[in-house]
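Anyone up for a design puzzle?
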């Protein structure tokens, strides 16, 4: 990695971090929309609508128009869900990173800097449901700087931080549509230990599955973070 530095977050990084997070999450709208269209319930509703309108109107144009408008509405629904998640995340921790991460015990937030520009982020804090673990959060790398090993370096930073503080493992959560992230984590030695559907009703409608990954940190070096 040429000219890449991993360092702790500073207050003047705040706007860059928010932009990277927002753009990164927005990239998943197309794949999430396709995921919604692949669901049997979605396909059944569209087919029933098309057949019912075709039968009642005796016209091909009306059902096609209705399905097209329904698809447009479905995409806006996906956009709305992601915008709501982004707003919630900003309000929950990214609007005050120093307070949420840097001032809390066993928590930290890092950025990857290239030629004076923030191009990647990652954070960790104690996992709510696993006292022996830290949770990796807010991993994102600018599209222009992907494929340079930045995400791997950020993962290693969290792993080293977790090991140094005596925790047994790192856990993280990623979604069914984040296939590149899943490949990265699995390459780094993480194992998928659980999958579940988000409890909110809109997520259940989309069958929006989350995966929980875990990386065990063994001091003997037999298992743990890969270095390549």
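Challenge accepted. My sequence:
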């Amino acid at each position: 990695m040429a000219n890449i530095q991993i360092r702790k977050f500073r207050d003047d990084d705040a706007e860059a971090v928010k932009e990277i997070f927002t753009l990164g999450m927005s990239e998943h709208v197309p794949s999430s929309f396709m995921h919604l269209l692949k669901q049997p319930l979605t396909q059944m509703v569209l087919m029933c609508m098309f057949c019912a309108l075709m039968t009642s109107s005796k016209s091909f144009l009306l059902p096609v128009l209705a399905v097209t408008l329904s698809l447009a509405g479905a995409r806006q629904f996906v956009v709305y869900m992601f915008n709501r998640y982004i707003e919630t995340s900003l309000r929950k921790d990214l609007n005050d990173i120093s307070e949420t991460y840097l001032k809390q015990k066993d928590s930290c937030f890092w950025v990857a800097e290239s030629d004076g520009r923030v191009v990647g982020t990652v954070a960790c804090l104690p996992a709510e449901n696993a006292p022996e673990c830290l949770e990796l959060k807010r991993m994102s790398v600018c599209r222009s700087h992907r494929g340079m090993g930045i995400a791997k370096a950020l993962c290693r930073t969290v792993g080293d931080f977790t090991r140094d503080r005596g925790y047994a493992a790192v856990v993280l959560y990623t979604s069914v549509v984040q296939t590149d992230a899943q490949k990265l984590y699995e390459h780094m030695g993480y194992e998928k230990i659980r999958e579940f559907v988000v409890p909110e009703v809109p997520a259940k409608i989309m069958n929006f599955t989350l995966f929980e990954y875990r990386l065990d940190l063994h001091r003997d070096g037999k298992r743990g973070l890969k270095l390549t």
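A detail worth pointing out: The domain at 4-31+89-216 is CATH 3.40.630.30 (Aminopeptidase).
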